[in-house]
Every structure is written in C-alpha cells, then in structure tokens.
Specification:
Layout (H helix, E strand, L loop, with lengths): L1 E2 L7 H12 L4 E4 L5 H13 L7 E3 L4 H10 L5 E5 L2 H13 L3 E5 L4 E5 L5 H12 L10 E7 L3 H13 L20 H12 L7 E4 L14 E4 L6 H4 L6 E7 L2 H8 L7 E5 L3 H10 L4 E4 L24 H6 L15
Parallel strand pairs: 1-2, 1-4, 2-3, 4-5, 6-7, 6-11, 7-10, 9-10, 11-12
Antiparallel strand pairs: 8-9
Helix pairs in contact: 5-6
C-alpha cells in the first residue's frame, strides 16, 4: 500500500511504485485527494507500458477510512507513507496493530550550518535559490539557517536581498516566475500564524512576512532574523516560504541547535575546512546530510530520516530491499 502527499504528485508515487514493482510486489496507490489526476496519468503510463492487470491499482477517497480498510486487509503486507508526522504516527500504530511492515517518510525542519570557513557568497546564493523551491513546500527544504557570528550580519543582509528580489506568481503563465503559490488557503493561515509569533525580542521579519493580495494562495518569500528558540518557527515545521537565520558562537553550538528538535530528515552545512566538514557530517542527526550543497536525493541513493522524520528508506538498494523479506534456507544433502 503506497500513500503519497500532494507536494510532488508524480515524483513521490513514482519512487514508491519503482521499489515495489522492482521487488516483484503488487501495489495499491492511494494519492492525495487534492492531486488525483497526476497519479492517474502515472498509473495509466504503467498500464500502457504493459504492466499486467492487478499489479498496480489506484484508489481514491477519504484518506482515513480508505487507509484503515486497506491496512487491515489481508492483501496488504507493507505500508509506505509520505506525509506529516502526526498522520504517520497514526498510520504506524494501525500497521503495528496488524503486524504490517511500515516505512514512513515524515516531516522535516532542516538546519543549514554556515561556518566561518565557508564560501559565503556561494552559500548565500544556493540557500536563497533552494529554500523557496516549490514555495518551501518540500520536506527537505533548508529552513533553519545557523550562521557563525562573524559573518551573521552579512549573511542576513545578502540572503534577505536575494529573497526580496524573487518574483512570485503563476509559473504556468509566466516562465520568469521564481516562486509559485502555496497549495491551499490553509497553508496561508499557517504562514500567518508563524509570522504572528514573531516580534519584539522574538525575532525580526527582515523581508516579506505577509500574504500577497489577489487571487491565488501566494505568500511573500520571508526571512526572519534571530527567531526565539521557543518560537513557532523554530519548533514546528513551517512547510512554506519562511526562512529563519540564527547566529552561533562555536560550531558545537550550531550542532546543538541543529539537533535540538525531534525531526531528523535532512541537514546541511557549508565549510571550507575538511576536518570541520567531516565533523559536521558525523555530528548532525539526520538521515541525509549535504555538505557544501543542498541536494540529498537521487534515484540511486537512500532517502529517509530518523526521529519524528520517520525510519527506513526509499530509493537506491535500500528502497528495493524495503519491499522484501529476509529468508534463510539451510539445506543438507539427502541422507546425510
């Protein structure tokens, strides 16, 4: 059983289908209810390619009752889910109650450590370009930017300047657009709640910070300087176009802040010091770590997290093995 969200309505089902079919499993795909057409076209491609009837099925409907029915069904032996941590925990409990294998890829709140040894100009350019991809509605989106105190002011200024120049609009109608809309009005309300928690000594909105008037669910690309440690932004996954920038004194302080949440999907770091880079790769608590880059996903590599970001992997050999059982057969010669 494959359960996928709305933010990547073709890519995420494709990853799950690939692992299941490669391992020789049949699969039932339940896509997000607000992006059904993409999944249907994808399944039709498999059918047109000659996949036999019954090997790949597609089901729509209310996610709660559908999931509960299929997880309990004896035809289901494995559940693969991508979505929120809260829903993942609920589905995991359902799967456990029926002794079904469960692979969850859940939320994230990715830290980005920028060391004083980093190529600052390159780091700023990459962070501004990547943070607002898909309007920040990406589970591995860089979100908490932890910057060495000696370069903090410069990073905030340059990052905010680049962010403020991003063009927001409908990319389907205008190819020059840098960032598109949020998925629905509930995401706008969530962004406004994050911003409402900022102010005074709880952080400063340097650029952006409000919804864009007019039709559609557009929100300004936003940078918050020094959000409070207990703020909504620093403790909850924003899943939108909001970045927070926090100064640190020592590299160990940055690691402590990065690892302070229960999320552990992706983490990033920029450093020109090789020893420091290796230290950060070891110390950051995440299923995937990018050093001097913000890419942690490719078809041949495992994709997954730890803690409240889930367990297990998709992609690579690990994603294939997730749809198999380990079986030992020990055989001796007949008669001796």
């Amino acid at each position: 059983m494959l359960l996928t969200p709305w933010n990547f309505p073709v890519n995420l089902p494709a990853k799950k289908i690939a692992g299941a079919l490669a391992a020789g499993c049949t699969a039932i795909l339940k896509p997000a209810e607000n992006t059904p057409a993409s999944a249907q076209l994808l399944v039709e491609c498999f059918v047109d390619a000659g996949v036999p009837a019954g090997v790949l099925s597609l089901v729509y409907g209310d996610p709660g009752p559908v999931s509960e029915h299929l997880i309990a069904s004896p035809v289901t032996r494995k559940v693969s889910f991508t979505g929120s941590t809260a829903v993942g925990k609920h589905l995991g409990a359902l799967a456990a109650s029926h002794m079904k294998r469960f692979t969850p890829e859940l939320g994230g709140h990715a830290p980005v450590i920028v060391s004083r040894h980093a190529d600052l100009e390159r780091a700023v350019a990459m962070c501004a370009a990547t943070k607002f991809r898909n309007a920040g509605q990406v589970c591995v989106s860089p979100t908490r930017f932890l910057i060495d105190r000696s370069i903090y002011d410069r990073f905030v200024a340059e990052f905010a300047e680049r962010t403020g120049k991003l063009k927001v609009g409908d990319p389907g109608a205008d190819e020059s657009v840098d960032m598109g809309p949020l998925a629905h009005d509930r995401r706008i309300a969530a962004m406004e709640q994050v911003i409402a928690d900022v102010g005074g000594n709880r952080g400063e909105v340097v650029t952006g910070g409000s919804a864009i008037e007019g039709s559609g669910f557009f929100f300004q690309p936003t940078v918050i300087a020094n959000p409070a440690p207990d703020s909504r932004f620093m403790t909850e996954e924003p899943f939108g176009p909001i970045a927070g920038v926090v100064p640190y004194e020592q590299i160990e302080d940055a690691v402590q802040i990065a690892n302070s949440l229960r999320y552990g999907l992706a983490a990033y770091a920029f450093s020109g010091d090789l020893d420091e880079a290796h230290y950060l790769g070891r110390a950051l608590r995440a299923g995937m770590v990018g050093i001097n880059q913000l890419i942690v996903s490719s078809p041949e590599t495992p994709f997954g997290g730890v803690g409240d970001s889930g367990f297990g992997s998709e992609g690579g050999e690990e994603g294939y093995l997730a749809f198999t059982d380990t079986k030992l057969v020990m055989m001796a010669k007949a008669g001796g």
